[in-house]
Amino acid sequence: MASKRCGFATLIAAALVMAFTSSALAQYARAPYFEQTVLQSQAYGLQLAQQRLDALELVGQELGDELDDDYLEILEGFEEDLPRFMGTLRARDAQLAADVEGAVEELEEAAEAGEPLAAHIAELRPLLEAANDLVIPADVRSDPVFIAALMVDMALGEGGAGEGYEEAVEGELGEYTMGYASLARLDDLWSQVSAGASEQQREDVQEMLDEIAALYPTPTIDAPIIGNPEEAEASVQRMIGVLETIVDAELFPGRDLQALAAHLPAELAGACQAYEAGESERALEGVIAVGYLYLEADLGDFLEFMAPDVHDEAAELIAALTGMGGEDDDDEEAVDEDDAPALADPSASCRELMEALQEASAVLGG
Question: Is the predicted pLDDT of residue 260 greater than 80, yes or no?
Answer without folding.
Answer: yes
